[in-house]
Amino acid sequence: MTPAQRTTVSFLDLALIMTGVMAMIASVGDRHPAVAEALADSFGSSAPASAERVTLKLARLFEPQEARLTDQGMADIAALGARARPAESKAVEIGIMVPVVAEKGASRLDRWELAAARTAAIMRVLADQGVADSAMVPDLARPGAGSAGSERGVTLTLRATAPGQ
Fold it and tell me: Could you read off the pLDDT of 75-93 as tens digits, one per residue?
């Protein structure tokens, strides 16, 4: 086999591998947490990450069409932040998923700006509660059809991690 033929075969192998990886990524869909947990188990995770998922309604957390937290919303987020404060024996990572929804009526922000500003508002309250920036994992949820904006919820996932991770 000549060097040119070996290079061609290697390139084709790489192309097939990349195609397979892309097909696997596309097949995951909305099952990211389940797939991530399965991968962690496959690679010998020393201890399964215990996760608690909390969903809070947008209408309870934020003023309509704004990124300003209501008093109740600030209290709810502060309570979660207090539970996630780092300690010597535990560390907690907080996943923050704010839905990207179009709300009825005029708004000064479009739906993406609103979702990003709401995520930042939640992160500010968590930081005020002593949660480290590295422990907050913001994730804008995929825009989706379905329920109206006020009926959708913000999902906060508290996941225990080893200290120092």
Answer: 999 998 888 776 655 677 8
Query: Could you tell me the two tokens for 75?
Result: 């209290």
Tell me the C-alpha distance between 33 and 52, whole Å.
Answer: 12
Is residue 100 within 8 A of residue 120, CB to CB? The reply is no
pLDDT digits (tens, 9 = 90+) for 61-71: 998 888 899 99
146-150 contacts: CB < 8 A, separation 24 or more? 148/101, 148/103, 148/104, 149/58, 149/99, 149/101, 149/102, 149/103, 149/104, 150/57, 150/58, 150/59, 150/64, 150/103
Q: Is 156 exposed, middle or buried (0-12, 13-18, 19+ CB in 10 A)?
A: buried
pLDDT at 149: 46
Q: Which of 152, 155, 138, 157 is nearest to 58 (CA)?
A: 152
DSSP strand pairing (91-98 vs 136-140): parallel
